[in-house]
Amino acid sequence: MSGSATASLAALNGVSAANELVQAPLGKALPVLDGLAGLLPWGGLRRGSTVVVRGSTTLLLALLAAATNEGSWAAVVGMPDLGLLAAHELGVVVHRLALVPRPGSELVAVTAALLDGLDLVAVAKQPPAAEARRLSARARNRGSVLIPVGGWPGADLELDGSGGGWTGLSNGHGRLRERELVVRSRGRGAAARGSQVRLTLPGGRAIDLPTDKPRLRQVVP
Amino acid sequence: MTAVRTLVVWCPDWPVLAATKAAGLAPDVPAAVLANNRVVASSALARAEGIRRGDRKRGAQSRCPDLAVFEEDPARDARMFEPVAAAVERLATGIEVVRPGIVALPVRGPARYYGSEEAVAERLIDQVATECDLECQIGVADGLFAATLAARRGLVVPVSGSAAFLAPLTVAELSPPGGPDRADFVDLLRRLGLRTLGAYAALSERDVASRFGADAVATHRLARGLEERPPARRRTPPDLSVTHSPDPPLDRVDAAAFAGRALAEQLHEKLAARGLACTRLGVHASTDNGEELGRVWRCAEPLTPAGIADRVRWQLDGWLRAAPGTRPSAGITRLWLEPVEVVDATALQLGLWHGGSEDPGTGAERASRALVRVQGLLGPDGVVTGVLGGGRGPSDRVRLVPWGEERLPGADPDAPWPGRLPAPSPATVPAVPVAAEVLDASAAPVGVSGRQRLTGVPAAVSVAGGAPRPVLAWAGPWAAAETWWEPAGARRRARLQVLLDGVEQTALLLVREDRAWAVEGVYD
């Protein structure tokens, strides 16, 4: 009885079963590097979401890499110090990455305009809370992904990059080669459970750690 | 400098042709043009009757009684030649009228379009013959001088064969009829025993310069098959701007956008009538209180009418909705658009369905509109994209280009860059240098010696005057002596990678220049 009711409801236009909602359709999410996919409850950056990145510029660039490779356009607002060479090395298509280094007092207007046309918009400055919510709503409406750097009220997901054990450098010789980055995610809805991933950058090789094992200290030297 | 591959269209005996055409004379009447009672140009028929340059009027008329004589008139020559230049320009761009009777154009573009230089020559001869009812001759060579001489012989000189082509010609070619008068100099060369251009070219340039002066150096360059000067492109007429004086003054964005759209259509029609399209558009406005606003929009592609209208709307939007301090204090009373840079309209090939370069639905088109919109808020330099090029440090290798401008790397990425830092690169590259201090175990500053060695072992680093943090590991210094051969551009730098301890490890790229350390990059 209940089965047939579900079936008849699901046949209606615009109604879908709850278990279908959990697995977001692929077309709705922008791709990310393999190592990061496990962190995001939708397997990628869901269009319309607000994903806060904190603690690591490399993490921000790594988030943009796969999507720009697939033809999406990205913009970074308010980061005059962004290292584009590092972006290129992480796999970001630099010619599809626009920079607005100094938005000044037009921060909200600029971000809103960018959300209209670009798939990914990273913002390194935080506007007043009311404006921030309005921008999140705009991203949801336009199907873009808003990536605030630092903090943001009412974000769907927060990614925290920390750790950073480097290999390759010794006393007086060698060079920086690889680093480990532990990324923890925390969010609302499907992401409330949280998860964490240990990445080796560059390269994005991920060693997935189940969240249940809390011995994070062992990972970070 | 290598000479530009040049095509020359030459109309033989142009002063005579112009005079007979202006007088409506039949081409089978022998004619001559005289200046100061001497023949300066004559038609082929008149020459067949024995008339030569420099003949007196009376002598010429006695030899050929039905000779039509005309006074020299440079204005008439130029006026009559304009249709010929226009006819040539319909087939090829960048033409230069060297003097009435001779048009030069860089042949590389047309040759690629029509298949070969011979094909271009053939089409040009046909074009001039049908449009202007004239016969012309064509020559192609490296450099204008060689191409002009080739045109007199109707030749296509092979690539980099100009010097060989010129060598057997006589030095009298340096003083052509109608061209610069160098008769005395040619006479001098003859008396020195230099009868061919090849013999003259064999002299060293230094000897020519020290004995015969600046003009001789130019002729020497010509004789060697080099360019005296590169051909200058035809400039665009200046009267292309369109103006609108709204009444009542515009102070609302929607009204301004409406006015802007009409103005954009008007400008586009004006440009299209001349076969031009705009690549740099100046949007200007003045207000009741005498304020003048203006901004130039650059575009990588020629603007469509919708593109012009969009830019005008965005610009007015940017002005009228600016912050109260910067907003114009009164309504806009005059609005004008000025095409700053125009290109041939053939460069503007409208798509069949959408009239744009890409489908409006694609990401690139949407992104482009959004970025242009942001440029309206912040100015053209407000939105940049990076171009990766050559260089050593992380900031040297990136050039930021305002959106819409041509993306050219700052330096050749394929050139060898000794001392270039390997990947990974720092994710944060401070735009403003941050001072740093490197200390050894006894807290004494560590520098770099003249032989690019550290003067101590780094034990701690303090950034921007902060507390020193212990160094876990370090490597370097990597020396980079840049453009040491040019005193003005020379830079001597040494780079050092350090890993600092703390709550979290921090990896820094330090650079030492002018006896001071600075943070060049943070690996965060």
TrEMBL record, chain A:
Q: Which domain of life is it from?
A: Bacteria
Q: Under which name does UniProt file this protein?
A: Protein RecA
- Source species of the chain: Kutzneria buriramensis
Automatic annotation (TrEMBL), chain B:
Q: Does the keyword DNA damage apply?
A: yes
User: What Pfam families does UniProt report for this protein, alphabetically?
Assistant: IMS
For region Disordered, the annotated ranges are 224-248
Q: Keywords, A to Z?
A: DNA damage
Q: Cite the InterPro entries for this sequence.
A: DNA/RNA_pol_sf (IPR043502), Rev_trsase/Diguanyl_cyclase (IPR043128), SulA_CellDiv_inhibitor (IPR050356), UmuC (IPR001126)
Where does the source fall among the domains of life?
Bacteria
**What's an example Gene Ontology biological process for this entry?**
DNA repair
Q: Which SUPFAM superfamilies match?
A: DNA/RNA polymerases
Q: Does the keyword Electron transport apply?
A: no
Position of the signal peptide: none
> Where's the UmuC domain?
28-152
What this chain does, per the entry, is described as: Poorly processive, error-prone DNA polymerase involved in untargeted mutagenesis. Copies undamaged DNA at stalled replication forks, which arise in vivo from mismatched or misaligned primer ends. These misaligned primers can be extended by PolIV. Exhibits no 3'-5' exonuclease (proofreading) activity. May be involved in translesional synthesis, in conjunction with the beta clamp from PolIII.
Family indicated by similarity: Belongs to the DNA polymerase type-Y family.
List the PANTHER family: BLR3025 PROTEIN (PTHR35369:SF2), BLR3025 PROTEIN-RELATED (PTHR35369)
The name this protein carries in UniProt is Protein ImuB
**Which source organism does the UniProt entry give?**
Kutzneria buriramensis
